[in-house]
What does this fold into?
Amino acid sequence: MRGEYDINDKGWDPHGWEKWPISIYYGGPYNEQPVKIAGKTPAGRDTVWWVFFHYDFGGPDRNSPSTWYKDYHDSSGLYNDTIYAHVFPSGDKAVIQYWLFYPFNDWVNNHEGDWEHINVGVTSQDPATAKIEYVDYYFHHSVKRCTQPGVDFFVDDETHPVIFVGGYGMWTDWGATGKGHGSHGCYPVKGGWERVERREKIEDFHEYIDGSGEFLSYQTFDLKVIPNKDEIIYGEDPDLYWMRSNVPWGHRNVNSPGEEAEPYIKEEVGNSPPRTPTFHPGWNDEGTSGEHKEYS
It folds into this structure.
């Protein structure tokens, strides 16, 4: 049996169906991170439930770009623009990861919730003397390392790298066509970028960034420094509890323009939301290691 229920302050009684106000998805054990619960069905029979927790900002019936745009418009004035910074050592140097959250992705692949990041490698662990040595720009399954300010990337106020947020994407491969305007890949310069989705079975995946969007200075954002998840102490850091939450940041799967290609590539095109940055393969990861490949 399947269904979705909203979390609220009444709690959750797994043995009483009529008291289940929690946002859960009944699926199968093939999904990630299920919680196995013994309880009763509506008919009163004992059974075992596979419970899947996830954020669902608009609710279970609002899982398309048209509803996301409306919900974002209605709530956009409630929160300040925020960037999250995480610092980790690299020998005697340091890397600053900047994490950016977007409420949804409306592109070749649609999904609710979208975490993006860049790495800024600096020459020292001393903030008073550190200078930018390189910037790793991540977009989709690719990364571009830039080392020449003013040549292959831009710097604002001589201290902060500029990000060109992804634009119009096109996919015409494997017998399917997808396109969209709402990507959030992090690029060092505007222009046309080819083969930005560097997965084994995806080749013809391009993106164009025209650079005409609004420029937002780092001074306009709230900055929050975030530690590793094992440094967060329950009872002392309530504003950081979300970093220990290994759940998807949105509805688990939505329709996408590029999903016609899924039978050809034998995998989903990216319709599922990301997880918390602390559980992302790029967390504390430098440059081109891990799942990312150098863009060339």
